[in-house]
Amino acid sequence: MDERRRGKKRVTREKLIEAAGEIFAEKGLHGASIRDITRRAGANIASVNYHFHDKFELYGFVLRQAHESVARAMNRPLRAETPEGRVRELLSAMLTAALSPSRPKWHRQLISRELLDPTPALDLMRNFMQRPCERLWEVVREIRPDLTDQQFMLTVSSVLAQCLFHVHHGHIARRMFPSVSGPAVRTLVDHISEFSLAALRGLQAKGSSKRRTRTRAAPARPSARAGRRKSARGGRSHLRTPPPG
To answer: What is the mean pLDDT of residues 185-204?
Structure first.
């Protein structure tokens, strides 16, 4: 009897999570109500208090779950021998997990909404997603140890921004270029990796002594022979006698 009751509670909890994810993705934290969630889950309001205490705790849980598959994929051991290969591994892990057909649709919708209209729950994601970002930072540092911390931050942010665009806003590219077929995940990984690595190699380190300066060439000094010819011409002119009057 106790096992059956525990099983029923697990099912109710899973239904609440799924229903909450969908409702929060549609309406946001402030627009969603506990009644909306329990109605879709087929549960009573008391079940939310029992499993999650309140709406904010439930929201934080489903937001973590939406990030979980991507974070887990990016935390797997890296096997590439070169840092360039490890950059590609991390991007492949991120994009493959984020764009997986088996991933619930509300995962991406909820994260998109949270990024556009942040709630206090976004701060709870820092520890959850910080390690994957740090791994990318560490690999980039292997490639370009001469960059400043600000350049590392901007570089890592630029790489991640490309991924986030195609995960959450790829529909914009499809609307802007309707005649071009949408890229497969592998194509995205190849492009973002090659594009980012090429930019990283060409980035000028701040304070580098290799900056090129354009200098004006010094005027050429006249040769000794040219000076003697000029003096000789001047001498003949000075010694010439005037014509008779």
So the answer is: 96
